[in-house]
Design goal:
6-stranded antiparallel sheet; 4-stranded mixed sheet; Phosphorylase Kinase, domain 1; 2 domains
Length: 265
Protein backbone atom coordinates (compact mmCIF):
# COMPACT_ATOMS: atom_id res chain seq x y z
CA UNK A 1 0.00 0.00 0.00
CA UNK A 2 1.17 3.50 -0.78
CA UNK A 3 0.24 6.71 1.02
CA UNK A 4 1.25 9.85 -0.87
CA UNK A 5 4.93 9.29 -1.72
CA UNK A 6 5.50 6.62 0.93
CA UNK A 7 5.34 2.86 0.50
CA UNK A 8 3.96 1.45 3.74
CA UNK A 9 5.92 -1.54 5.06
CA UNK A 10 5.76 -3.82 8.09
CA UNK A 11 4.02 -2.86 11.29
CA UNK A 12 6.59 -2.59 14.08
CA UNK A 13 4.52 -1.34 17.00
CA UNK A 14 1.09 -0.45 18.30
CA UNK A 15 -0.54 1.57 21.06
CA UNK A 16 -4.18 1.96 22.04
CA UNK A 17 -4.53 4.94 19.67
CA UNK A 18 -2.21 4.29 16.72
CA UNK A 19 -0.10 1.75 14.84
CA UNK A 20 3.55 2.21 13.84
CA UNK A 21 4.85 1.13 10.44
CA UNK A 22 8.08 1.21 8.54
CA UNK A 23 7.89 3.18 5.33
CA UNK A 24 10.03 4.03 2.32
CA UNK A 25 9.78 7.29 0.41
CA UNK A 26 10.11 7.57 -3.34
CA UNK A 27 13.63 8.94 -2.88
CA UNK A 28 14.61 5.74 -1.03
CA UNK A 29 14.75 7.16 2.48
CA UNK A 30 13.30 5.03 5.28
CA UNK A 31 10.75 6.56 7.64
CA UNK A 32 8.53 5.70 10.58
CA UNK A 33 4.79 6.15 10.07
CA UNK A 34 2.29 6.44 12.91
CA UNK A 35 -1.30 5.90 11.79
CA UNK A 36 -4.22 6.73 14.06
CA UNK A 37 -6.70 3.88 14.51
CA UNK A 38 -9.71 6.19 14.15
CA UNK A 39 -10.32 9.80 13.17
CA UNK A 40 -10.79 10.68 16.85
CA UNK A 41 -7.54 8.96 17.81
CA UNK A 42 -5.72 11.43 15.59
CA UNK A 43 -5.85 14.02 18.37
CA UNK A 44 -2.95 12.37 20.19
CA UNK A 45 -0.83 12.40 17.02
CA UNK A 46 -1.72 16.05 16.43
CA UNK A 47 -0.51 16.82 19.96
CA UNK A 48 2.66 14.82 19.35
CA UNK A 49 3.33 16.68 16.10
CA UNK A 50 3.03 19.97 17.94
CA UNK A 51 5.53 18.84 20.57
CA UNK A 52 8.10 17.77 17.98
CA UNK A 53 7.71 21.03 16.08
CA UNK A 54 8.53 22.94 19.27
CA UNK A 55 11.63 20.79 19.83
CA UNK A 56 12.88 21.37 16.31
CA UNK A 57 12.20 25.09 16.39
CA UNK A 58 14.14 25.48 19.63
CA UNK A 59 17.01 23.31 18.40
CA UNK A 60 17.34 25.65 15.42
CA UNK A 61 17.61 28.59 17.82
CA UNK A 62 20.47 26.84 19.63
CA UNK A 63 22.15 25.87 16.35
CA UNK A 64 21.97 29.50 15.17
CA UNK A 65 23.49 30.72 18.42
CA UNK A 66 26.31 28.17 18.08
CA UNK A 67 26.98 29.30 14.52
CA UNK A 68 27.07 32.99 15.42
CA UNK A 69 29.34 32.51 18.42
CA UNK A 70 31.50 29.84 16.74
CA UNK A 71 31.14 27.40 19.63
CA UNK A 72 30.89 23.63 19.72
CA UNK A 73 27.59 22.24 18.42
CA UNK A 74 25.89 20.20 21.18
CA UNK A 75 23.84 18.37 18.51
CA UNK A 76 20.59 18.24 20.39
CA UNK A 77 19.12 17.49 16.96
CA UNK A 78 20.59 13.97 17.18
CA UNK A 79 18.47 13.23 20.26
CA UNK A 80 15.02 13.22 18.68
CA UNK A 81 13.39 12.18 15.43
CA UNK A 82 12.60 14.60 12.60
CA UNK A 83 8.89 15.15 12.03
CA UNK A 84 8.59 15.24 8.23
CA UNK A 85 4.82 15.53 8.01
CA UNK A 86 1.56 15.28 9.92
CA UNK A 87 -1.65 15.09 7.93
CA UNK A 88 -5.18 13.75 7.67
CA UNK A 89 -5.22 11.12 4.94
CA UNK A 90 -8.46 10.98 2.86
CA UNK A 91 -7.69 7.45 1.60
CA UNK A 92 -7.56 6.26 5.23
CA UNK A 93 -10.89 7.74 6.41
CA UNK A 94 -9.18 10.98 7.38
CA UNK A 95 -7.06 9.27 10.01
CA UNK A 96 -4.02 11.31 11.03
CA UNK A 97 -0.56 10.10 10.01
CA UNK A 98 2.73 11.33 11.45
CA UNK A 99 5.88 10.66 9.44
CA UNK A 100 9.33 10.67 11.07
CA UNK A 101 12.87 10.34 9.79
CA UNK A 102 15.86 9.56 11.95
CA UNK A 103 18.51 12.29 12.44
CA UNK A 104 21.82 11.65 10.67
CA UNK A 105 21.56 7.87 10.92
CA UNK A 106 19.97 5.08 8.93
CA UNK A 107 16.85 3.57 10.43
CA UNK A 108 18.35 0.11 9.90
CA UNK A 109 21.04 0.86 12.50
CA UNK A 110 18.48 1.40 15.25
CA UNK A 111 16.71 -0.95 17.63
CA UNK A 112 13.95 -0.19 20.18
CA UNK A 113 15.50 0.54 23.55
CA UNK A 114 13.09 -1.80 25.37
CA UNK A 115 13.96 -4.68 23.02
CA UNK A 116 17.68 -4.27 23.65
CA UNK A 117 17.11 -3.95 27.40
CA UNK A 118 15.16 -7.21 27.40
CA UNK A 119 17.70 -9.18 25.37
CA UNK A 120 21.12 -8.10 26.67
CA UNK A 121 23.07 -6.80 29.65
CA UNK A 122 25.59 -3.98 29.27
CA UNK A 123 28.89 -3.16 30.90
CA UNK A 124 29.56 -0.08 32.99
CA UNK A 125 31.17 2.15 30.39
CA UNK A 126 28.42 1.41 27.89
CA UNK A 127 25.85 2.44 30.48
CA UNK A 128 27.63 5.76 30.94
CA UNK A 129 26.94 7.09 27.46
CA UNK A 130 23.35 5.84 27.47
CA UNK A 131 22.68 7.55 30.80
CA UNK A 132 24.50 10.63 29.55
CA UNK A 133 22.34 10.81 26.42
CA UNK A 134 19.17 10.56 28.51
CA UNK A 135 20.32 13.27 30.91
CA UNK A 136 21.30 15.49 27.99
CA UNK A 137 17.95 14.99 26.27
CA UNK A 138 16.03 15.92 29.41
CA UNK A 139 18.26 18.95 30.01
CA UNK A 140 17.10 20.22 26.62
CA UNK A 141 13.63 20.72 28.12
CA UNK A 142 15.14 22.73 30.96
CA UNK A 143 16.77 25.01 28.42
CA UNK A 144 13.45 25.30 26.60
CA UNK A 145 11.65 26.28 29.82
CA UNK A 146 14.34 28.86 30.64
CA UNK A 147 13.54 30.70 27.40
CA UNK A 148 9.97 31.40 28.51
CA UNK A 149 8.27 33.27 31.33
CA UNK A 150 7.35 30.09 33.24
CA UNK A 151 10.35 28.52 35.02
CA UNK A 152 8.54 25.19 35.41
CA UNK A 153 9.89 22.56 33.01
CA UNK A 154 7.56 20.19 31.18
CA UNK A 155 9.53 16.95 31.31
CA UNK A 156 8.59 14.04 29.03
CA UNK A 157 7.22 11.03 30.84
CA UNK A 158 10.08 8.52 30.96
CA UNK A 159 9.07 5.46 28.96
CA UNK A 160 11.81 3.30 27.40
CA UNK A 161 9.33 2.49 24.61
CA UNK A 162 9.79 6.03 23.33
CA UNK A 163 13.41 5.57 22.21
CA UNK A 164 15.55 3.91 19.57
CA UNK A 165 19.18 3.15 20.27
CA UNK A 166 22.05 2.98 17.79
CA UNK A 167 24.77 0.94 19.45
CA UNK A 168 27.55 1.49 16.91
CA UNK A 169 27.34 5.27 16.74
CA UNK A 170 26.23 5.90 20.32
CA UNK A 171 22.83 7.29 19.39
CA UNK A 172 19.73 7.48 21.53
CA UNK A 173 16.72 8.89 19.68
CA UNK A 174 13.35 9.95 21.11
CA UNK A 175 10.62 9.24 18.57
CA UNK A 176 7.38 8.82 20.50
CA UNK A 177 5.52 11.24 22.76
CA UNK A 178 3.91 9.46 25.73
CA UNK A 179 3.00 12.64 27.57
CA UNK A 180 4.73 15.16 29.81
CA UNK A 181 4.60 16.45 33.36
CA UNK A 182 5.34 19.92 34.71
CA UNK A 183 7.79 20.05 37.62
CA UNK A 184 10.13 22.58 39.18
CA UNK A 185 12.80 19.96 39.94
CA UNK A 186 14.00 16.90 38.04
CA UNK A 187 14.32 14.56 41.03
CA UNK A 188 11.69 11.95 40.17
CA UNK A 189 12.72 11.82 36.53
CA UNK A 190 16.40 11.38 37.37
CA UNK A 191 15.44 8.57 39.75
CA UNK A 192 13.34 6.76 37.13
CA UNK A 193 16.01 6.95 34.43
CA UNK A 194 18.80 5.91 36.79
CA UNK A 195 16.83 2.91 38.07
CA UNK A 196 16.30 1.79 34.49
CA UNK A 197 20.06 1.85 33.90
CA UNK A 198 20.80 0.31 37.30
CA UNK A 199 18.61 -2.67 36.40
CA UNK A 200 20.46 -3.12 33.10
CA UNK A 201 24.16 -2.74 33.88
CA UNK A 202 26.57 -5.40 35.13
CA UNK A 203 29.10 -4.00 37.61
CA UNK A 204 32.40 -5.76 38.28
CA UNK A 205 34.81 -5.67 41.22
CA UNK A 206 37.03 -3.01 39.67
CA UNK A 207 37.33 0.02 41.98
CA UNK A 208 36.41 2.47 39.21
CA UNK A 209 33.27 0.50 38.42
CA UNK A 210 32.34 0.38 42.09
CA UNK A 211 32.66 4.17 42.37
CA UNK A 212 30.43 4.59 39.35
CA UNK A 213 27.95 2.10 40.80
CA UNK A 214 27.76 4.23 43.96
CA UNK A 215 27.05 7.32 41.88
CA UNK A 216 24.37 5.52 39.91
CA UNK A 217 22.81 4.28 43.14
CA UNK A 218 22.79 7.82 44.51
CA UNK A 219 21.00 9.07 41.39
CA UNK A 220 18.44 6.27 41.71
CA UNK A 221 17.83 6.96 45.40
CA UNK A 222 18.05 10.73 45.67
CA UNK A 223 17.68 12.08 42.14
CA UNK A 224 18.98 15.54 41.31
CA UNK A 225 17.48 19.02 41.18
CA UNK A 226 18.06 19.39 37.44
CA UNK A 227 19.29 17.33 34.53
CA UNK A 228 21.98 19.90 33.81
CA UNK A 229 23.38 19.22 37.28
CA UNK A 230 22.93 15.46 36.89
CA UNK A 231 24.83 15.53 33.59
CA UNK A 232 27.72 17.40 35.23
CA UNK A 233 27.70 15.14 38.29
CA UNK A 234 27.89 12.14 35.97
CA UNK A 235 30.74 13.20 33.71
CA UNK A 236 32.98 14.87 36.29
CA UNK A 237 33.89 11.55 38.00
CA UNK A 238 33.69 9.62 34.72
CA UNK A 239 36.36 11.90 33.25
CA UNK A 240 38.62 11.09 36.20
CA UNK A 241 37.88 7.36 36.17
CA UNK A 242 38.16 6.61 32.45
CA UNK A 243 38.46 9.85 30.52
CA UNK A 244 35.92 11.10 27.98
CA UNK A 245 36.42 8.93 24.93
CA UNK A 246 34.60 6.53 22.64
CA UNK A 247 33.92 3.15 24.18
CA UNK A 248 32.39 0.41 21.99
CA UNK A 249 28.95 -0.86 22.91
CA UNK A 250 29.82 -3.81 25.14
CA UNK A 251 27.15 -6.33 26.01
CA UNK A 252 26.33 -9.95 26.69
CA UNK A 253 23.18 -11.86 25.89
CA UNK A 254 21.09 -12.38 29.00
CA UNK A 255 21.86 -15.72 30.61
CA UNK A 256 25.38 -15.87 29.16
CA UNK A 257 28.84 -14.77 30.35
CA UNK A 258 30.64 -13.97 27.07
CA UNK A 259 31.01 -10.26 26.38
CA UNK A 260 30.69 -8.89 22.83
CA UNK A 261 31.26 -5.48 21.30
CA UNK A 262 29.74 -3.36 18.56
CA UNK A 263 32.00 -0.54 17.41
CA UNK A 264 32.42 1.95 14.63
CA UNK A 265 34.11 0.65 11.49
Amino acid sequence: MKVRDIEVGNRIGESSKFRIYLGKMDDGHSVIMKVAKTFEDGDILAEEAGKFRVLHAFEKVIAKYVEIHDTSNPHYDWLFANLLASFLEPTQDDRRINVFAMPDIDLGELIPLTKLHAEVEINVRTSVWILGRLFKFYSFFELLAAQGDNPVTRYPVFSPDDYFIGAKRHRLIYYNFSGDVADVIATDFVKAISKFILDWVVVGDDLAEQKYFELLGDFAKNGCASFEEAHNYLYTPVAKLWGIQYHPFTYRDRGTIAWKTIKED
